Amino acid sequence: MMPAAIAPRQLALSLDHAESLDRDDFLEGPCNASALALIESWPDWAARVMALVGPRGSGKSHLASIWAAQAGARFVSARSLTIAGVPAALATGALVVEDLAAGDCDEAALFHLLNLVREERCFLLVTAQKNLASGQFELKDLASRLRAVPLVTLEAPDDHLLRAVLVKLFSDRQLAVDESLISFLLTRIERSFSAARIAVGNLDREALRRSRPVNRALAVDLYKENGA
Question: Domains (ranges, CATH) in the chain?
């Protein structure tokens, strides 16, 4: 007797869905209105150095990208900043330093950057998860400079904005979904843009793997399997 044929398991292809970080794709709400106003007010800033502070997934990188497109700014992560690399980083006269945190950067390089920004009248936008004034920086002069940096705080998105973000993320993947799925996800995911991206990506991949539509039933199954 020949063995029964085993049905091949469908593999989901991991396809990148590039997210647009243009101004037209930024969804505004009460949680980020002040930060957007700051970005759009450039170059009429109150200071040459400004900071965006907010939790992970609150939209800091998107806002920084909007500003970078306007100002011709380069990007560098705070942890990769070096003294030798500071002049090149400021070559265009504008720079975004992302994810600044005390204990996770070269303080001498950061202090040198702040001095060069002031001397050459450049612009610097810093993003961080915590207030710069609360960081325990070892260099006293650096800590003093950072306490003086004006900042705008972003809050976690409210239900209305997070709902709009979910709809847009599904739309970006050419997925038409109904209100019941969006409402279900709002009760399950963390209140952040990054959590929304992860949820949409997971549903899209699982729908392909299981040959099922992206709907509330699939979401219920996935969260049940994960104990959520």
Answer: 29-153 (3.40.50.300), 159-225 (1.10.8)
Per-residue pLDDT for 58 more than 60?
yes
CA–CA distance, 136 with 163 (Å, rounded to integer): 37
CA separation, residue 157 to residues 22, 99, 135, 179 (Å): 19, 19, 25, 19
Residue 140, pLDDT > 50, answer: yes
* CA atoms within 13 A of residue 131's CA, in its CB half-sphere: 6
- pLDDT tens by residue, 59-86: 899 999 999 999 999 999 999 999 999 9
Q: Is the pTM of this model over 0.90?
A: no
Number of C-beta neighbours around residue 56 at 10 A? 14
| CA atoms within 13 Å, Cβ hemisphere of 16 | 3
